[in-house]
Hints:
By secondary structure, the chain is mainly β. It has one helix spanning about 5-30; strands at about 35-45, 55, 55-65, 70-85, 90-105, 115-130, 135-150, 155-170, 175-185. The model is unreliable at about 1-10 and about 25-30 (pLDDT under 50).
Amino acid sequence: MNRHGGLSAGLVAMIVVVALGAARPATAQGLAAGNFSVSAGYSFMHDTSGSGTNFSKGGDIDFAMFFAPLFGAEVEVGGWCEDEEFGTLDESWMVYTIQGGPTFKIPRLVNPWLGQVHVLAGVAIDSVSVNSGPASHSTHFSLDPGVDFDYMFKPHWGARFDGGVRFVNEANETSRQFHVGAGIVYRP
């Protein structure tokens, strides 16, 4: 792993430790209704770097815990893959992300809608293999502002619609990865 990748992994580790450390007092008091959410779903991503690859196969899982009425922390893990053919070359691309950061509830949405915005930081890990050969990997710093909207069709269950733009620092250049998704959310 290169020096930049090591720094990114260290940053993610620090964010996770801080989020879990802050969560400990909240869990000691018990999780009150509405203090956390867990979601999982499908995600589509468009990477603007290179040839502008669309990643139609992807998904993410996230966990958010709120420590105040409008403020909390969120951790998200995602993955996307796509196969492309260029003449005789068959390339398989995979992108994985591990991110965490602050999240803020959006007040006063029309019932049954809930929303939150977040700014997540972490790592984006790229993997590519050509003609089923060994994969090459690279790790980059990522910054991902985004928004989640939840339509609660049951008291604790809902549909999540999300989107954002991930900024990924690659070789002193910043590429953008636009992503949108839909899935299921649980809010006690």
